[in-house]
Amino acid sequence: MTETSTVRPRARRRTLAERAALFDIPVSTAVSPDAEAARRHTIRWLRRYGVFDKAAAAEYDALRLDRLSALFYPRARGAALDLANDLNGWFFVFDDQFDGELGCCPDAVSRLVDSVVRVTGEPPGRGLDGGANPLVDSFRDLWRRINSGMSQGWRDRFRSHWLGYLLAHKREARDRRAQSPRSLRSLLAVKRHSVGVQPCLDLHERFAGYTLPSALHTGWPLAEMREATDDVVIFINDIVSLDKELAAGDVHNSVILLHERDGGPLEESVRRVADLANARYHRFQHLSERLPATLAASGASTRLLRHTAAYTDGMRQLMSGSLAWSLETSRYDERGVAAVGGGRQRPWSDLTGHQATHRP
Predict the structure, then answer these.
(1) How confident is the model at residue 182 (pLDDT cuts 50, 70, 90)?
(2) Is the pLDDT of residue 245 over 50?
(3) Which domain holds residue 122?
(4) Does 358 score more than 60 pLDDT?
(5) 181-206 in b/e burial notation, b at 16+ Cβ within 10 A?
(6) Is residue 5 part of a domain?
(7) Domain harbouring 155, CATH code
(8) Alpha-carbon distance 77 to 31, whole Å?
(9) In total, how many domains does the chain have?
(10) Tens digit of each residue's pLDDT (9 = 90 or more) over 10-22
């Protein structure tokens, strides 16, 4: 029995469990039965676009993103869950590009982000493989499939959320380079986009075949509930990924921010962030209880009430599913820390070729 192979992994699992116990958010148990099929589909899809080879696929598979997708969308079946899992896979592969040198080079980040942004403005029907790079080519296929058959209003909102997600990476790169003083408010202003919650929520409408009115999305209380969902997922992720992000040297973490700003034991900052998550979750629950009466008083139809209730359930599934998956995946356990510690990067973390061109 060695310390590295036995004692440390068990200690980390206890730490994750102890930190997770600070949350009032329930751990989701509802999952789509098609997770395994989606798992196989997405690995084939990412390999087809050259995101990773067969050897690296095993490391990707250990992340169990199929479980995350099945928790986010427990009613999704077949091609719908495949699509959701492809999106989640792309999200995480894209996110891993910024753990290395690229993430600290604002100009290079801008070039990558802009290449993906251009895809969102391409006319329908463009060829699937533009030959730019695996990230752009796979995203083009993803973008076509997600938007197919959707109304213009939904597509416009989905694109707006995607642009917010993509452009936030430029701001994060500037922050890494400048190491400027940050506040929790400014951190959340960026992470509410970079966390990618809003595009995931849009898929709940797509899969269930409804589109809520824009005025409902932007009005009270649904807009506040969506922001609370962002914040809960952010705070969950910041706590469960803390050891990984400390190993990778990432500064975009609310626990790290509070700890650097206020000092004291690191676990005290963890508890403070968990308290923030719980406050946001309880506010969400309060607003969700008031929402049906608020809508009914405004003359909402029975159909709209039903769709809004489904969307509210979708927000809950993202919050509780995020917590449940975080306790299952290898991304945040000992393997996840080792995967980004000591300068190591994921096998798919340099799809732009940036690190290769900057090595002496």
Answers:
(1) confident
(2) yes
(3) 12-353
(4) no
(5) ebeeeebbebbbbbbbbbbbbbbbbb
(6) no
(7) 1.10.600.10
(8) 11
(9) 1
(10) 555 568 999 999 9
Residue 3 in domain: no
Asked if the bond preceding 221 is cis, omega within 30° of 0, the reply is: yes
Report pLDDT digits (tens) over 1-49.
Answer: 333 333 344 555 568 999 999 999 999 999 999 999 999 999 999 999 9
Whether 358 is in a domain gets the answer no
